[in-house]
Structure formats: C-alpha cells, structure tokens
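Extended Data, panel c. Modelled sequence:
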Amino acid sequence: MTQSERRTFLLQVLLKEHPEYQGLRIPADADTQRQVQNHADAVVIGAGAGLSTSAGFVYSGERFREYFSDFASKYGFTDMYSGGFYPYPTMEEYWAYWSRYIYINRYQDAPKPVYDDLFALVQDKDYFVLTTNVDHCFQKAGFDKKRLFYTQGDYGLFQCSEPCCQETYDNDKLIRQMVEAQGYIIAPDGQLTVPENPILKTYIPSELVPHCPHCGRPMSMNLRADDTFVEDEGWHRAAERYSEFLRRHEGQKFVFLELGVGYNTPVIIKYPFWQMTAKNPNAFYACINQGQAVCPPEIERQSVCIHADIGAIIAQL
C-alpha cells in the first residue's frame, strides 16, 4: 500500500467511525486535511521553526552573508545561530550583532507569504495558535493577538538578565537605533539597506547598550534559554487563554494542525497534540513537516502526516 493509499484508507476509517464527516469525498494528502478542517468546530495550530523556514527565514547561506558577511570575516562563524553564541569581547559588539539579528528576523517581513496564506485558511474559524517561534510572524500576518501563545518569548522584547523582576520591555525603537548606528538605512518598506560604498560598523555606541531600568544590570532578549527567562503578565494571560480555549472545545470536532515542529522541545506542542488527539475520538491530527511528519500508531486512524514544504501545502488547502 502506497503512502497516498494509506492516507485514503485512514480517512475511510475515520468517516466510518465518525458519521459527522459523511458526505466528504475520499481524498488524500492535502485534500484530506482541507476537508476535515472545513468540518471542524475548532482548529489549534502548533507552529515550530519549520514554518518560518518555509516562509524564508533561513539562518545560513545567502541571507546570512547579506547581513553578516563582515561579522563572518571578523569572527569566523558561518551562520546566524552560531553567531548568537559567539563570546564577543564587548557589549557594544554583542548588541551590534544581536540588533541586526533581531531586526531582520522580527521587524522585517518574511520573504514568502506563508503566514498570510495560513491566516486566510483559518481566519473564519475558531482558532488558536501555540508556537515556539519568537519572530512575531503571526501577528504581522493578521492573526488576533488574543489567539496567540508565544511560549518561548519574543525577539521584540528585552528583559533584565538577572532577572530582578518579571517584566519585559519593547525594543523596537532601540533596535532601530542600533542598526542605524552601524551604518544601515531603514527603507520605507522596513528593509535594511546600505548606502553606496558603505563601511558598516560591527559595534554600537556605548550609550545604546541596554540596561535594566530597575537594577541597572545588562538587558537580555526575552528568549527561553535557561531559568532566567521572564514569564511576564502577558505570557500568563496568553497561557490562560489557551487553556480556556481547550476547555471550551473539549470533546468537540477538533483539528490539531502541527506545522514545522521538530524534536528540540516536543513537550510543548507535539506530544500534547498526540495526547489530546488520543483522548478525543472527535479530534483529527495533521502534521506537515519536511522529513519529520510522523504520529504514533495509537492515533493513525485520526491522523494525516505530510512530508512536504509547508508553504506549498498550505497554498493547496
């Protein structure tokens, strides 16, 4: 039995056990997901790094060289991720690197309209988004802020590095000042540009290095890396809204749509989605992931796993 035939068989089983889906034709792959989703009471999107990768937010190759070739020549790393862990000798150099990193991955739009296409798919549904991504792409695409839970932080927020308090701070204005101080020009469309014959700096003025307004310690990004991560009031409100959404739809026809979630933090999205699908006979689990689309045998009858580019599949739904 081919993979396509197996998916068709699984949907046939689902229709047999769930009369509410009767009347659908028996498709496979993306058609399966589209038709089941159209009959769902609610959709939960679980999004990982693979979704933003599909949207063009890649951290190596041409995009890395476009914005960090001077850092690569000076410090020897070859991708943005490695540059984030480099032990810069000064805070001025550290924030020069991170301000570019934050700006292009948070304040610039994604190169491809994958998030816009996803929003068009669910905007008329009762949906909620659970994501480990920190690039703000959902809100920029039009998703309702009150239907989003960013579990791992936000590139657009600073926090005290200690931390001395459970507060976060918007960094938009300061990040823009940092990149401009290095010689960049921010175009009207938000893209970073450089003047002709530029000499970009790999450091920022000392007065732009951020410090906590309460204790004076250095600031850090609000990203979950260790036990210093700040879960502020907004984080807890979003967590409660997500829990309430799940309670409100308990036992109903539920689609868990997992997009680009790997195995770095599977306990946040992947494993809970599997568990909730197993507990709810009316739930349907769909996973779209290039090379990592799997589900446990216990929920195969309620699942479709698609090994493909997320953006290409969403465009078909």
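Confidence is low (pLDDT under 50) at residues 1-28. This feature is highlighted in the accompanying rendering.
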